[in-house]
Amino acid sequence: MDTLTKVLYVGKPVVFLLCLVPAATIVAQAFGLAGGLGANPIEAIQDHFGNWGLRFILIALAVTPLRLISGRNWIGRFRRMLGLFAFFYVAMHFLAWLVLDQSMNWQAIIADISERPFITIGFAALVMLSAMAATSTTGMRRRLGRRWQQLHNGVYAVGALGVWHYWWQVKADIREPLVYALVLAALLAYRAWYRLRGRKRAQARAHARAFDSAG
Ligand code: HEM
Questions:
Q1: Distance from the CA of 77 to the center of ligand 1, in angstroms?
Q2: Which of 56, 64, 112, 148 could join 86 in a cystine, given CB atoms 3.0 to 4.6 angstroms apart?
């Protein structure tokens, strides 16, 4: 077994179990363990899943910068799993709202999605994330070709919509959404810088080639 296979063989199940910890925590709280759910259990469940959904979107977005900065390509092998966990936590956040908060009252659900802007934004982000989760397989990646990358680049927009959705509903204390916004801005800035650097290097190579052939 080579080193890469060993890292993935041990690392994947370990990361998978770690990603389940936030879900296990809220289940434990629902059973009265780990401090319980507090005075408003529905809100506690919804907020917990919403926060972890957003955290996992940012964690999945951090994979490529980490891989490029560290030079360890195996880090990239965890991106799909982390992205699918982002979808899982956002879907649970949505289901908690649908079932526990709205009691599956479709009229109220449609009214909320169409009339409350912060919910419309959250819903748009969920639709985009669902399209990414549905096309996350290797087969779909091959089938969609260039369009796959275009679709999956949309994860930055999902992150921005997620932060906006959170920011819009806070009344006074914006500290938490601000932290999410700063992390997202740093990830976006790194990506823009990396692309610009790649373009400049390609231009420099093209100039050098043109200079060589002229000489
Ligand atoms: C990518 C998609 C989404 C992300 C990242 C996200 C994230 C969040 C976050 C971080 C919060 C604040 C939690 C807190 O106060 O600590 C929140 C609250 C909320 N979200 Fe979302 N959300 C998303 C999609 C949705 C969708 C699709 C719906 C419903 C259609 C929704 C409904 C709500 C509601 C009602 C609240 C307020 C809960 C409360 O009463 O405190 N969200 N969301």
A1: 29
A2: 56
166 lines ligand 1 (CB under 6 A): yes
The domain that holds 151 is classified in CATH as 1.20.120
Torsional class of 129: left (φ above 0), alpha (ψ -120 to 50), beta (otherwise): alpha
Looking at residue 53, its pLDDT comes to 98
C-beta 45 within 6 A of ligand 1 = no
Output the pLDDT for position 35.
86
Residue 177 · residue 167 · CB < 8 Å: yes
24: domain range? 3-214
What digits encode the pLDDT tens for the residues 139-195?
999 999 999 999 999 999 999 999 999 999 998 899 999 999 999 999 999 999 999
Q: How many domains does the chain have?
A: 1
CA angle 31, 34, 36 (to 5 degrees): 55
For a mutational test of ligand 1's pocket, the pick from 101, 165, 166, 170, i.e. the residue with the most ligand atoms closer than 8 A to its C-beta, is 165
